[in-house]
Amino acid sequence: MDKLDKLTVASVIVLTVYAAVLLATAPDRPRANPAEQRRVASQQYIANPELDNKIRLAKNLMAQDNLDKTETLVNSLINEYPYRGDLFMLRGDILMRRQQPVAAMYEYKEAIELNPDFLDKKTKIFQGKKIRITVEEAMAAIESGLQQQPGDTRLKSDRKTVYYMKRKLAGSCG
Amino acid sequence: MEKLTRNMIILFILMGAVIGVGAVLLSYFGNPANTGICVACFMENVAGALGFHDNFRMQYLRPEIIGFVLGAFALSLFRGEFHSTGGSSPLLRFLVGMLVIIGCAVFIGCPVKLFLRITGGDISALTGLAGLIAGVYVGLEFIENGFRLGEAKPAPRANGFIIPGVMILLLILAVVQPSFINQSEKGSAAQYAPFLMSLGVGLLVGALAQRTQFCITGGIARIFLWGPRELMNCPRSTGMLISICSFFGFALAANLLTGQFHFGLQGQPSSTPSYGWAFSGMFLVGFGSVLIRGCPLRQLVAAGQGDNDAGVTVMGMLTGAALAQNWGLGSTAEGTPLEGQITVLLGICLLLVIGLLNRRRGYGIAPEYQIGLD
Hints:
The complex is a heterodimer. Chain A is built from eight helices and no strands. By secondary structure, chain A is mostly helical. In chain A, helix 6 (101-114) packs across helix 8. Chain B has 16 helices and two strands. Chain B has helices at 6-28, 39-49, 63-78, 90-107, 111-119, 126-144, 157-160, 162-176, 195-212, 216-231, 235-257, 275-291, 296-304, 308-326, 338-357, 367-370; strands at residues 85-86, 153-154. In chain B, strands 1-2 form a two-stranded antiparallel sheet. The longest helix of chain B has 23 residues, at 6-28. The chains are: A mainly alpha, B mainly alpha.
């Protein structure tokens, strides 16, 4: 065995041990495989006239600035249909009207994770511009908060979410 | 040793200009941002179009891939440089081809896209560049210490036509659009430049890459192999570096002129916050590419000029692309999934074991790696 052989064997051992440690210490997560995730996501597209009527009602209430009633209705719908991205999008809209961009950003995050079409210009439900404005406002609020409290861990975590949302908005080939 | 003539210098500059400007224009006219050309992403699209995975956002018969092979095929036939060869550890190349594409999926991009991301202002991609260089360096250590896959031998001429033939079939399918070919209506695969433009850029890049033997990992490898001074005495090595520099310069200029340059670390297209894994993914790509004599683009081009071993590698790349999608190995805006992390680590281990088992101790660079070095 020459030097390269010894280095190779040592590297293989280190990398294998590291992989084993990663596997052993990985948090338990009920992660569906990608095909299963896509199957769940496809539930977004199942027509539901009753739900559509309720969403229309919620939008009318919001247009009349009746935010409390809208929120109650949207919350009850989310309990019933937790896989529908458009409901989280509505809750985000309510929070934006209440000028809470950081909280709204989290709702939009949930919405686009459930239904990536909200960020797809090729679809009719594209909402990228609205989400981008929310993320920018959230960033401004977080930066201002961090100037006052530089060590605030919650604000730092919020900032990471802003970066995540920016990457989502920028798009990917995957 | 042939001298680097003025015409050759122009050709090498043209190679970089065509791939740099072509890729940026493809993005401008419809391909995903910073993804004007990405062999790995496009292989995933092709795999999806053929039904090898069911991600309905990643299914499109990308004409660029077809163009790379057919451009190289046409020019090599025209110049009498089409030689059907094979038999240099094909199965091993298949395996390494798979791993290389999985490494690309973890970084989110092939070496060409790595440069496109950097020239688009994405400084997070620099971790990938560091990984690629490190991987190339380690791969070269094996090459310089007797690693060999065995010399390729002349094969029946008909064998060399298989991959170009498959690409002609794919081209027909892309034009005819039969129902069994999947086509995304949303997602990144639904973002594409006009068909003829994509095919045209693919053909040009393929032809020029055949003529110049353009290869990003090959260019980097030659810096380590020769050192800066000797490098300047080798026309092909100098030419390859000229092409890479030209690619970088033209892509940067085109990105600036088309308003696609966004400098920064955060919020970049096709980026991941897992910088360490982006480094590791590209390390795997650099290491694997050196062992099989070429980056993913080079494999497609070599397959077009009759290299059956490169053809088998292309099939491995297609399989790797399907696996990356089916097993969810690729990085996302969220980070690198555990499955991707484990695969990269085990992939690097596998390459090390391949290097260990295929070395002839006490020997230097094997003859098959010396082709084109002078």
